[in-house]
Amino acid sequence: MSPKKKPEPSAVEVAARELVRLAKEQGLSLTGPDGLLKQFTKSVLETALNEEMTEHLGHEKNRAPGDRESANVRNGARPKTVLTEATGHVEIEVPRDRDSTFEPVIVKKRQRRLNGVDEIVLSLYAHGLTTGEISAHFAQIYGASVSKETISRITEKVIEEMQTWQARPLEQVYAAIFIDAIMVKVRDGQVANRPIYAAIGVTLAGEKDILGLWAGTGGEGAKFWMSVLTDIRNRGTKDTFFLVCDGLKGLPEVVGNVWPLTTVQTCIIHLIRNTFRMASKRDWDALKRDVKPIYTAPGPTAARAALDELTEKWGSRYGAIIRLWENAWEEFIPFLDYDVEIRTVICSTNAIESLNARYRRAVRARGHFPTEQAAMKCLYLVTRSLDPTGKGRARWTMRWKPALNAFAITFADRWPAAETY
């Protein structure tokens, strides 16, 4: 058997090997303030700028054709220091032309940071680092001085982008909308908890769509949810088959005012979790067996019978558990009228809780925010950085496909016609 033939090294690999060889020959470190990588970055940037100048003028340096129409030629170079993501500050020579019409692209006029630096700042901010901590990070890792004011200006750039995202048109119909709120600490005179409301919609193609973020005041309440849902409707959403929540009091009436045909479904997982929270640990196994027939019942009548049995057996010991189920009953039973495929996807708010877990991670790292806008900016950047490879979206869509077939049959009278969807 003949040995496998090694593939030819790529141009990038050849360049990397040459860089390492030169570093060894010249006794230089590869990285660091005077490392060869920094010199290489300088050389690449200057070469690219000179190529841009050649394209702008239409001829190489000192090779201008005699019959050219323009008299514009190179006119030396000017020094410039730029901040790069890999090697910190790099001093480069930017070519100039006599007519001053050259507009470089790779390092634009008045640009002091390469684009990758801004993305690093935004990523660190999304992970909950303060402007001071980001400044210290650049000093420690890159040996570069980046002021807190500069970092603030970089993060301020996303505000307009965030406002555009928050006001974008939405789908006319969603299969389901999941809603929840998280608390963040904002220093407005004094540090206080402020709710940030979030909503996720599932399109009729099974795609997840984060509909927006809304800053409220006080505790989470149905009154503010009214303004959130109205905003979603005003941005184009005429209907959603289900709205899934954690059982907030007064929410069904609010939803009915915005989308009269929408079914409000309380999160079954929340109900079960709260059930065990109210019980002694020694009774968990027995309770688990007695609660399961309620949420796995074939219909509302069978579920009611199972709840009556639970009441008879546990009512005297755990009256609070029975009240919990009774109070949530009207928002619990809707999903029992539907196929297993639909039940599976609307029985919990896990879809939005996983998003909130990412938000809370950034909020915990930060502690508190100086302003409401700083909090919104951080959470938007978390949203912006989710699922960069798209694999999560693909898994989500595959999980929803069976349910969407059931949705299309069950809600055929509300499913948009092909020509309007």
**Strand line-up in the sheet with most strands:** 5-4-3-6-7
- Rg, Å, rounded: 30 Å
Q: Work out the strand percent.
A: 15-25%
Task: Please describe the biggest sheet, giving its number of strands, its sense, and whether it closes into a barrel.
Answer: 5 strands, mixed
SS field, number of helical segments: 15
Task: Compute the number of structural domains.
Answer: 2
* SS-based class: alpha/beta
Poorly predicted spans: none
Tell me, what's the shape? Answer: elongated
What's the N-to-C terminus distance? 59 Å
What average pLDDT do the residues reach?
81
- Write the element-wise H/E pattern from the N-terminal end onward: HHEEHHHEEEHEHEHHHHHHHH
Strand element count: 7
- Helix % is 40-55%
Tell me the layout of helices and strands:
Blueprint: H1 11-26, H2 36-57, E1 74-84, E2 88-97, H3 115-126, H4 131-141, H5 148-166, E3 173-188, E4 190-202, E5 208-215, H6 222-234, E6 239-245, H7 251-258, E7 263-266, H8 268-277, H9 284-295, H10 300-314, H11 319-332, H12 340-346, H13 350-366, H14 372-384, H15 391-410
Parallel strand pairs: 3-6, 6-7
Antiparallel strand pairs: 1-2, 3-4, 4-5
Helix pairs in contact: 3-14, 4-5, 6-7, 8-11, 9-10, 12-15, 13-14
Task: Provide structural commentary.
The chain is an alpha/beta fold and 421 residues long. The chain has two domains: 27-60 and 73-156, no CATH class; 165-410, no CATH class. It has helices spanning 11-26, 36-57, 115-126, 131-141, 148-166, 222-234, 251-258, 268-277, 284-295, 300-314, 319-332, 340-346, 350-366, 372-384, 391-410; strands at residues 74-84, 88-97, 173-188, 190-202, 208-215, 239-245, 263-266. The strands form two sheets. Strands 5-4-3-6-7 form a five-stranded mixed sheet, sandwiched between helices. Strands 1-2 form a two-stranded antiparallel sheet. It is elongated.
